[in-house]
Specification:
Length: 207
């Protein structure tokens, strides 16, 4: 991962500052979308850092602390359910990424994204399968994933019947069954098909 980034940096000046960005929760049926942005030292390499989905909860938690400690700068942006619904998931991801970049205390010269395009004012490279190729993107994915998962644990305290602590808002069999049985909550994304179909079929309102 670090060597992949070094090859990219080789075509830039030695002073180029690079940031990685990624999001978590884009495909979930409920809850916010969370974006992470991180600038790691150029000589930093940690083989344990990889796509957050390939790590255990314990591994992600330990790496989150490590990344926050070593990062030159990092930022986390939370896009609410309302913003995701208003903008649509793709645009919410883009806006969240740009907001996170703007929050960094050190401004990057180059931004690596996981295949997502940003506004022309941002100098970026969209890397297909970026969270498996770029250490910086993978680190950003870890920050976003841990932050969002912790939010889901909080939501589980309010809505335990939906099993958010395990499904993290994704449309598992148990989650979909709970939707049928209990209806939707205020944090469900009403434009997403399983939720939207339930609303249309039963004329339900959130709780």
């Amino acid at each position: 991962m670090n060597s992949f980034e070094q090859k990219i940096l080789a075509s830039y000046s030695s002073t180029t500052i690079m940031a990685g960005k990624d999001e978590a929760g884009r495909g979930c049926l409920e809850g916010p979308l969370v974006v992470g942005a991180v600038i790691l030292p150029k000589d930093y390499f940690n083989p344990a850092i990889k796509d957050s989905k390939k790590l255990t909860v314990k591994q992600r938690t330990m790496l989150e602390t490590e990344i926050m400690n070593v990062a030159i700068s990092y930022a986390i942006e939370t896009m609410s359910v309302t913003m995701v619904e208003t903008l649509n998931p793709k645009q919410a991801s883009i806006v969240g990424m740009q907001n996170a970049i703007d929050k960094l205390t050190v401004k990057p010269d180059l931004i690596l994204t996981d295949a997502e395009k940003l506004a022309p004012s941002y100098h970026y490279q969209a890397i297909i399968d970026g969270d498996n190729l770029s250490q910086s993107i993978a680190a950003a994915s870890i920050l976003a994933k841990v932050t969002r998962d912790n939010l889901m644990l909080e939501y589980d305290q309010t809505y335990p019947q939906y099993d958010f602590k395990n499904n993290k808002g994704y449309g598992t069999k148990k989650h979909l069954s709970a939707l049928q049985k209990y209806g939707i909550t205020a944090i469900h994304r009403k434009s997403y098909r399983p939720v939207r179909d339930l609303i249309l079929k039963n004329n339900v309102t959130d709780k």
